[in-house]
Automatic annotation (TrEMBL):
This is PMS1 homolog 1, mismatch repair system component. It comes from the Eukaryota. It comes from Seriola dumerili (Greater amberjack). Transmembrane segments: none annotated. Belongs to the DNA mismatch repair MutL/HexB family.
Length: 299
């Protein structure tokens, strides 16, 4: 029923940042080398992600936002060597249930792009020719229009600013892990480009009092991992006790690459929590790296 659809979708799609993460990952899965993000009213009125990826095949467009449709895996074995962020076919359909969605897309085979307007159930209700080049643009209007309590919650000035900060951090995370990627962010036509760190920059001189500049990636996926985070902080603090005492941390990044079959990314709908089957081995390796970096050995 519509109520069940709304409820389950509201669990998959929880915030502006969450929508943006799903759209960006779809763009990256499509091989995009350029992604332009536009937000209006902190994303509550419009979130738009334009990419230059491979586009969506005409045959797939009627089902693109159907629950569990994915073009990314076709067999159970594919799950063992997954190289895409997405594979569950949940995001696009869920976004349709909590916002107004339009998808414009063009593949190499298509002569021109087509803009599709989708309804609550992810069905195409209208389509028209468009002028965009190869790739896909997804526009998400009036997020949570049918979840007024949640929309209200995200509408406070304080919450809006917090969320915009998270958007910037999310983009920065992808900019770090995909150095070839061209990224831009426009909010209410004000460009927030230029906060991406450059390799070799001295972060310590620019470090803010914000404690959330640590990026952890597992198989290129930005994740939260308490134990790894704790290790990074502990070792940094041993080297720079004054900074740590003031809760000042530079941008720290750690990439963990493990076999896809030894990590479970399905713990939470937004896939930011991971379960490492061989956690102790990973922590030992991280520790060894930190010892070589900072020279501190915990007793
Ligand atoms: P998943 O990413 O798990 O496959 P989604 O619901 O996020 O599921 O997307 C559904 C499908 O829509 C994808 O499998 C893909 O075929 C298509 N799609 C969505 N966004 C894009 C995009 N930016 N470029 C190309 N295809 C896309
Ligand atoms: Mg996806």
């Amino acid at each position: 029923s519509d109520t069940v659809r709304l409820l389950s979708s509201s669990q998959v799609i929880t915030s502006v940042v969450n929508v943006l993460k799903e759209l960006m990952e779809n763009s990256l899965d499509a091989g995009a080398l350029s992604i332009d993000v536009k937000l209006e009213n902190y994303g509550l009125d419009r979130i738009e992600v334009r990419d230059n990826g491979q586009g969506i095949k005409a045959a797939d467009t009627p089902v693109m936002a159907m629950r569990h449709f994915t073009s990314k895996i076709s067999s159970h074995e594919d799950l063992q060597h997954l190289e895409t962020y997405g594979f569950r076919g949940e995001a696009l359909g869920s976004i349709c249930a909590v916002a107004e969605v339009a998808v414009t897309t063009k593949t190499v085979e298509d002569d021109i792009s087509t803009q599709y307007t989708l309804n609550f159930k992810g069905e195409i209700v209208s389509q028209k020719p468009s002028h965009l080049g190869q790739g896909t643009t997804v526009s998400v209007l009036k997020l949570f229009k049918n979840l007024p309590v949640r929309r209200q919650y995200y509408s406070s000035t304080k919450k809006c600013k917090e969320e915009l900060k998270k958007v910037q951090d999310l983009l920065m995370a992808y900019a770090i892990i995909k150095p070839d990627l061209r990224l831009s962010l426009v909010h209410n036509k004000i460009s927030l480009d230029g906060f991406f760190p450059k390799p070799g920059a001295d972060y310590s001189s620019t470090s803010s009092s914000s404690p959330d500049k640590t990026f952890i990636f597992v198989n290129n996926r930005p994740v939260h991992h308490k134990d790894i985070m704790k290790l990074l902080r502990q070792h940094y603090a041993a080297q720079y006790p004054d900074d740590a005492a003031r809760n000042r941390y530079p941008t720290l990044m750690l990439k963990v690459n493990v076999s896809p079959s030894s990590v479970d990314v399905n713990l939470t709908p937004d896939k930011t929590q991971v379960l490492l089957h061989d956690k102790e081995a990973v922590l030992t390796a991280v520790e060894a790296l930190l010892v070589s970096l900072y020279g501190y050995r915990p007793s």
